[in-house]
Write a structure and sequence with these properties.
- The protein is mainly α and 168 residues long.
- It starts with a helix and ends with a helix.
- This is Dynein heavy chain 8, axonemal.
Length: 168
C-alpha cells in the first residue's frame, strides 16, 4: 500500500517533469528585433530552472522515496531514471551555453551604444568569438543555434544604426 502511494507520487513527478522538458524544447516566440543579450538571458533562466529541478531531484526526501521504490523493485523507476538523465543533460546544456555566451557579453555594449563606425571595429573579434563558440561548444554547434545567434547580433546592429540615424 505504501509502495503504491509512493509510485503515485513519483508518477505525478514524472508527468510534471515531462511537461517542463516538453516546454523547454518548444520553439521560443521572440520579438523580431531582439539582440544577443536576450539569448544569454534565455539560457540563464533555463539554467536556473533546470538547476532548481536537479536540486529537488537530489534532495534527501526524493532520494528516500526512490530508494524505497528500488527496494520494492517498482516499475516506475525506469521512466524516472530516464527523466533524471534528461534533466541532467538539459541542465548541462544550459550551463554550457551560458558559459559560452558570456564570452560575447563584452560586445553587447559596443553593439548597442556605439556609432556604426565604432561598432564595426568590434565586428571581427565578435565573429571570431562566435566562430570559437560554434567550433568548441558541444551544444551550440548547430546551424540553427548559430543562425539564431547571428540573427540577434544583426538585429542589434540594425537597431544601433537606426538609433544613430534618428539622433543624427
Amino acid at each position: 500500500e505504501v509502495t503504491e502511494k509512493l509510485e503515485g507520487v513519483v508518477m505525478i513527478w514524472i508527468k510534471q517533469i515531462r511537461q517542463v522538458l516538453v516546454e523547454s524544447e518548444q520553439m521560443r516566440r521572440e520579438a523580431d528585433d531582439i539582440g544577443p543579450s536576450a539569448e544569454l538571458e534565455h539560457w540563464k533562466t533555463r539554467m536556473s530552472s533546470f538547476n532548481s529541478l536537479l536540486e529537488e531531484i537530489k534532495s534527501s526526501r526524493v532520494k528516500k522515496i526512490i530508494s524505497i521504490l528500488q527496494a520494492a523493485r517498482s516499475k516506475t523507476l525506469k521512466p524516472w531514471k530516464e527523466l533524471d538523465g534528461n534533466i541532467t543533460i538539459a541542465a548541462n546544456e544550459a550551463k554550457d551555453n551560458v558559459r559560452y555566451l558570456y564570452t560575447l557579453e563584452k560586445f553587447f555594449g559596443p553593439l548597442s551604444k556605439a556609432s556604426p563606425v565604432t561598432m564595426m571595429e568590434h565586428v571581427p573579434s565578435l565573429m571570431n568569438t562566435v566562430c570559437m563558440i560554434y567550433h568548441t561548444s558541444p551544444y551550440y554547434n548547430t546551424s540553427d543555434r548559430v543562425t539564431s545567434l547571428l540573427l540577434k547580433i544583426t538585429n542589434q546592429m540594425i537597431n544601433t544604426c537606426k538609433t544613430y540615424l534618428c539622433e543624427g
